[in-house]
Design brief:
Elements: H1 4-19, H2 53-57, H3 71-74, E1 86-96, E2 99-107, E3 120-125, E4 128-142, E5 145-163, E6 167-168, E7 171-172, E8 175-196, E9 199-219, E10 237-260, E11 264-271, E12 275-284, E13 293-300, E14 303-313, E15 318-328, E16 333-334, E17 345-356, E18 362-376, E19 379-394, E20 397-405, E21 409-419
Parallel strand pairs: 2-6
Antiparallel strand pairs: 1-4, 1-21, 2-3, 4-5, 5-8, 6-7, 8-9, 9-10, 10-11, 10-12, 11-14, 12-13, 13-16, 14-15, 15-17, 17-18, 18-19, 19-20, 20-21
Length: 420
């Protein structure tokens, strides 16, 4: 019969094989290859789609239109289209339900013992909701120039997940508890210059305040049976990883808007994401005692670059728009892990608007769709969004309402624009 010391040694050796893939662990598992992490890119839920309810109704395809005060963010080159000063305010509501891996088996056949009964990864969803001001701006035209000042809430959410770990062959990864708290608010100034009647340039300077806090704790399952559920007892804690990255950064936005005749416009834009420094701390629990380790880390909001086209038909009553965005997730978190370059993502946006121009107030109906890419561990997935919107324009006021739905989130937006 083995003594208790020998049993403990064998137990630790057995679990070392389970923990090896997750050694760099916990919150630094933003990397696609961080073994058992339930982290998804969608949980960071940046508002890369352009602000404003009108843009949301177009499915986010707004960079080639950029014909109201939200152009300060969407494409500053479009500011020159505004002949009179404008102020804009947007309120948004977000309801999020991003998936995470809560258990299951990623390799081999389930044994049927304990919780090892599910073929493939087992996904669950967390639900959260947020409401508040999302965007505000003022635009001041002056000759061939237009100037804008704005504030924008790029991200504001908290999330928490629990995973029982996943089975692979004869191994099982640790059970995990993870929390994420991310806040990004920005204030910016932009200028548009009408170079010719058909070509304009725009440039913006943005100051962003970023705060990211993540924590991930890994646990052994109870008792000697690796197939049993984890109850997250403090005595079974393996390690806790913490990441804190916060500060301010100054970045650039730039855009180009070109008219190809009276009906077709095209655009190019680039938005640089802020980057802040931070650090990670990994402390060990009773199951694997040892000194804590500390490392420097950096968190970078992805850069976004894109191009768009817009067609105005039927005397301006019908508008069609499309936009393609490239989101640079690679290097988003630098420290013990990164998001590989191949997981940079393309987003595709299309939208349409039909306006009853002879009606007073003018009534506009909008619809759009767009596709984004999500990554849950090794499992990439395309998420399709569908949007609808309405607009009323009775100068000097314009009111817009829109909603956007997908498997992971529902968004509602109300915007008001006043021209003076």
């Amino acid at each position: 019969m083995l003594g208790s010391g020998t049993e403990d040694t064998m137990r630790r050796e057995r679990w070392t094989t389970f923990l090896a893939p997750a050694g760099c662990l916990a919150l630094l598992g933003l990397a696609a290859g961080a073994s058992a992490q339930p982290v998804t890119l969608s949980r960071f839920d940046f508002s890369f789609s352009n602000p404003g309810a009108r843009s949301l109704g177009f499915g986010g395809a707004f960079a080639a239109l950029a014909d109201d005060a939200t152009a300060a963010y969407a494409n500053p080159a479009g500011l020159v289209q505004l002949a009179e000063p404008e102020v804009s305010l947007e309120m948004r509501m977000w309801r999020r339900s991003p998936p995470h891996i809560a258990g299951g088996r990623v390799d081999g056949t389930p044994t049927g013992q304990g919780i090892d009964t599910h073929v493939g990864p087992l996904f669950q969803r967390n639900h959260s909701q947020d409401f508040g001001p999302s965007f505000a701006s003022v635009v001041l035209p002056k000759g061939r120039w237009s100037f804008a000042f704005y504030g924008h809430r790029l991200a504001q959410f908290e999330d928490a997940t629990t995973s029982q770990g996943v089975f692979s062959g004869r191994s099982r990864s640790p059970a995990l508890r993870e929390t994420v708290d991310l806040s990004i608010t920005s204030a910016g100034g932009a200028a548009g210059w009408r170079m010719t009647d058909r070509f304009s340039l725009g440039l913006g300077l943005v100051i962003s305040d970023v705060s990211l806090r993540m924590q991930s704790s890994s646990y052994l399952p109870d008792g000697q049976d690796r197939f049993g559920p984890a109850t997250f007892l403090p005595s079974l804690l393996v390690s806790t990883s913490r990441l804190t990255a916060e500060g301010t950064d100054v970045t650039l936005h730039a855009g180009v808007l070109a008219r190809f005749g009276d009906q077709l416009t095209g655009s190019l834009f680039y938005r640089q994401g802020p980057e802040v420094d931070g650090g990670t701390t990994v402390s060990r629990g009773p199951s694997f005692p040892g000194p804590p380790s500390r490392n420097r880390a950096a968190f970078e909001v992805p850069d976004v670059a894109g191009a768009g086209l817009a067609w105005r038909l039927l005397g301006g009553s019908l508008t069609l728009a499309t936009e393609v965005d490239y989101v640079g997730y690679a290097g988003m978190l630098r420290g013990s892990s990164t998001v590989p370059a191949e997981h940079n993502a393309w987003e595709f946006h299309v939208g349409a608007e039909y306006a009853l121009l002879r009606r007073s107030p003018i009534l506009a109906v909008r619809a759009g769709t767009w596709i984004e890419k999500e990554l849950v561990l090794f499992f990439p997935k395309e998420i399709t969004h569908y949007s609808l919107g309405l607009g009323l324009a009775a100068p000097p006021w314009q009111l817009d309402l829109a909603g956007d739905v997908s498997d992971n989130a529902k968004t509602a937006s109300l915007s008001a624009i006043y021209t003076f």
